[in-house]
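hey so i finally got around to running both of the ones u sent me last week. sorry it took forever, my laptop kept dying halfway thru and i had to restart like 3 times lol. anyway pasting them below in the order u listed, first the sequence line then the structure token line for each. didnt double check formatting much so if smth looks off just lmk and ill redo it

first one:
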Amino acid sequence: MNLFGQQIVIERAAWVRFFGAIAGLALAFVAAIYSTISAEAGNVLATAILASLALLLAGIVGLTTLPYLARRLGGNRIRDAIDYDITREGLVYLGFTLLAGIAALNTGNNLLFIVIAAMLAAIVVSGMASAAILRGLELDVMLPEHVFAGSPVQARITLRNCRRWLPSFSVSVVPLRPNRNSRGGTRKQRLILDRTTFTFPWWVPAERRWISLPDWRLRRMPGSQRPEAELSPPIFSGDVYFPYISTHSTAGASVQMNFSRRGLFRQEGFGVATRFPFSFLKKTRRMALARELIVYPAVSPEDSSFAILPMMTGEFEAFMRGRGNDLYRIREYQPEDSWRHVDWKATAKTGGLKVREFTREDERKLRVVFDNSTPGMLSEGDYESAVALAASLAWHFSGEAVELSYTAPGYPGGSDIYDFLGYLALVQPAVGASVVDELEVSDDYNLIVTARPRGSIPTALWACSYIVFVNGSG
């Protein structure tokens, strides 16, 4: 294997912690030696200070550096399996343990050493018990299929205890914390060892240098950037608590969710956490269970867009009136009307010739058109209002006795309402040709939501379309 052609990648944080631990342990060792010398010299104050310093430095290294390095040596699987967080109670307990250790070192009392051993054993027992509680648990998260912004929905979280003998106590399902190197800013800085050439003297031209030897160069690789906009917001943000799960049983809980805006929401993973039994540590087991949820735009009957529906319905039915089975209206007779449609009862009552007019059921076709705007054409609020308007109108007419179709830039087509709502959930302003210019005149009646000026709409569309201009265009 050619080592000269390789780049050795070193994580700076790991090396800083390693050398910091070495320095801390070296200082603790020196302090311990001098405390022994001070004790032999009879200097009690110096002995107490140095012994306390040695114990404090060793405790800091043990709590901050050794677990971090141990997780790294254990590999990615072990590192990502369990997270440890010390609680406030645990900090207080460790403080009392440290004080008891200092007192034991200063007095040499065997009873205090026994007390310290019992206190440390309690920490070990707590870690073993919490690990046993978290093992054997299976998690399932069931999300609703269709979710609208602003409308509360219910999700279902289920925990199953697969163990045969041991139940689980005080378990919570929590969202995983994002990794510190992926929160949208600069990731961890790394050092790269590259092969180079050592030359001397370096201030003269290359052909006049005396020495030229193979060498290595340590350089810093800048951390990559991850814009915050690329991060999808999480689905869950709270905890779901399960006080007790019996052996070979399942416990479930319903979670109410309410999303304030449309878009894609993603949960990269979940955690099963517990503080059982003594609450010294909060131990979280990572569960590889990713979920995605598309939130549709808000659809509400109270939306102001529904003020146009009576006018829209009238124009649509006027466009589609003709011979059919559903009575549209009774009107005055005109020369081109057939005598078969004369309503004799209405004629007798009014004294004038009346005919019945029917809707053409076979041609009640409506096409909802969303003309996406270019970036900067509309403010963010106006754009979201346009998307919500298109979604609300499409949702309203999907419940009517009409044949619906949808047209939008980049929309693959289809008559399924949820496909169109999914498109509107993710759409953003984009540069491109207006879909209105490419709209073909057909038997469909068009409902167009656009930000274009009124004068730029093709004349042929006015007779068979109801056009909603966003932000007072035109």
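and the second one:
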Amino acid sequence: MDAAKNLFETLANFKANDSSGLTSQQLLINYCKQVLGSTENLHYDYKEKDDSSNSQLSDSDKKNLAKAVSGFSNSSGGVLIWGILNKTLVPKPIGDIEQFLANLLHLAPQSCDPLVSGIDGVWLPSENKNGEGFAIIYIPESVLPPHRVVIKVNEVKNHYYTRSGDSFVIATHTQLEDMFGRRPKPVLILSKRFSAQKNNTKNELGQLNILIGIRNAGRGSAEAPLLALKIMHPYRIHDNGIDGNGRFGLPPLISATDTHEKSFGASTDVIHSGIVRDVAKVIVKIPNTNENSKNPLSNLTIDYKIAAKGIQLICGQDLTTSDMLFDKFEYELSHQINII
């Protein structure tokens, strides 16, 4: 399953998930804050409705929708989250949410030429339970790009958009050539793979090993890949590489601008379709605590940049909460295969 579809199904499940005792709004906001963060990335975007008191689409709403449909479908797909303020993640529920979702789903496919198929959506109720809520729109990657905005709204009509980092930008001439030529293209995503080692000392249960790299989820090969990482304190990139012998998945590069950022890349390297290239490793020591103790771990925050020949720079931030680090450690230990 692609990243955008997986995110959409995760958010949609909050409507039916009441086992935690939290409302749909609380589940949504908590997930946005703890997992997605306030920095929009390649596969999702927060949108505030122009007038949240009603379900009607203003020109501003139509413009935001059309840019997203064109940009996500021309790229690797994505999810629009309506009713949350960008950056602050403060909820701003939309009135008559069920009708608002219907209006979005009616306009979205025909906002571009050719029509974009496979668009889906759900709505989540707000805590007020008076018809207000949040709309989640899934826009898949198109197999027939490029898609041009055709709705009659100034600034966006007749433009082709793509997703670049956390923005929708007008496609370049080269990008349009690629899309019109139906050339398979790479889709590069930050990859994290986990393994665990048990220790059981007085102070430590063990360590969680996190391999960080690039996954090519597209159909084309990624030439000259580059990955730049900034790991927030107290964690860091392991000096001995991914194998303990100083080997990294891509050659380390010297950074002249930011000493806290470590870059890896090679002009002669290629990451083929469907391949995960592990590049660097972070080690998290898991402390030995009892159930009543406060979690002493810090969240793992990774600022990253991904690039390759012929694609625009992808920038984002990945967050693994302290609770998730504990859960990953326990999960990996429980699924280890004991070989006698």
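quick thing i noticed on the 2nd:
The longest strand covers residues 204-216.
anyway thats it, ttyl
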